[in-house]
Automatic annotation (TrEMBL):
Part of the ABC transporter FtsEX involved in cellular division. Keywords: Cell cycle, Cell division, Cell membrane, Membrane, Transmembrane, Transmembrane helix. It is found in: Cell membrane. It is a multi-pass membrane protein. This is Cell division protein FtsX. It comes from Gulosibacter sediminis.
Length: 304
């Protein structure tokens, strides 16, 4: 019985070669988008964990050039700076503060020159134009608002800034790209499902005489349907395996082989576990959708 089902499946694949190839290609492209979107989500979560844990709260003190309403008294005095430090060490904030350090104007200027050493702007900046600041590392970065609300408005403080706000824009762009990839993949998956259903119906129509004979001799519905469902599963499996191979190849050659050496400070997605999980999901989706589409299509055809 198994041999007969397999021979019927191969016969169906041969009769509809062009349609089967179309199903494989559409499935391959759509699932490649799905795999890319999953990898992108892994990368976003990895970057968030890495950068958010290192993001600091910056408490900038007034300079002679500050325009903030809180800086009408001019440059921050040592007493005002000490008052802020006392607040950081107090009972209200100390449970949330992991560590902090003070950066003088000379330290800030040295860091500025190091970061922008090739920029002509460096020649126009002097140490007295830069803010003295406390850089605060939080126990939990999510609690940064507590420090911001407590310190903002204290005498001599120009601004209190959570560095994570500068990262939110980058992650918003990456999330937008991931959602776009999922949307494209969804549209193409719908096309792939419809194509599988059409292929199975054409295959059943081309073998309508054999199906009629099988019904007359009392063959069960599951026995009649099995070759057609296997046809769809085979096409979906080949397309999803091609997509999984693309996910592995893209991760190995492009991400790890090309991007990682050029971005040594960033942890990028790798073969294990990110690419392996993405490939597994891609294959599961491909086989499941193809099987469901084939099963529903052949049942509806036989019911007519």
């Amino acid at each position: 019985m198994f041999g007969f089902i397999m021979s019927e499946m191969w016969q169906g694949l041969r009769r509809n070669t062009s349609m089967v190839i179309s199903v494989i290609l559409v499935t391959f492209v759509s699932l490649t988008f799905v795999g890319a979107a999953i990898l992108l989500q892994f990368q976003i979560q990895s970057m968030k964990t890495y950068w958010y844990d290192r993001a600091q709260v910056a408490i900038d003190f007034c300079t002679e050039q500050s325009q903030s309403p809180n800086c009408t008294g001019g440059i921050a005095t040592q007493d005002q700076i000490d008052a802020v430090e006392t607040e950081l060490q107090g009972e209200a904030l100390s449970p949330y503060v992991n560590e902090y350090f003070f950066e003088s104007q000379d330290d800030a200027y040295g860091r500025f020159v190091e970061q922008f050493q090739d920029d002509p702007l460096v020649s126009f900046v002097t140490p007295d134009q830069l803010n003295e600041a406390f850089w605060v590392n939080m126990v939990d970065p999510e609690d940064s608002d507590i420090v911001i609300q407590s310190i903002t408005g204290m005498p001599g403080v120009e601004s209190v800034t959570d560095q994570r706000q500068f990262l939110d824009g980058i992650f918003a762009v990456l999330n937008g790209a991931s959602i776009t990839a999922f949307a494209i993949a969804l549209v193409m998956l719908v096309a792939a499902v419809l194509l599988v259903a059409t292929t199975i119906r054409l295959s059943a129509f081309s073998r309508r005489r054999e199906l009629r004979i099988m019904r007359l001799v009392g063959a069960s519905n599951s026995f009649i349907q099995a070759p057609f469902i296997l046809e769809g599963v085979f096409a979906g499996l080949v397309g999803s395996l091609l997509a999984a191979a693309t996910v592995f190849g893209g991760t190995h050659f492009f991400v790890q082989g090309y991007l990682q050496p050029r971005m040594p400070g960033m942890q990028l997605v790798s073969i294990w576990p990110e690419a392996a999980i993405s490939a597994g999901v891609v294959v599961a989706i491909g086989v499941l959708l193809a099987g469901l589409a084939s099963s529903i299509s052949i049942r509806r055809y036989l019911r007519v």
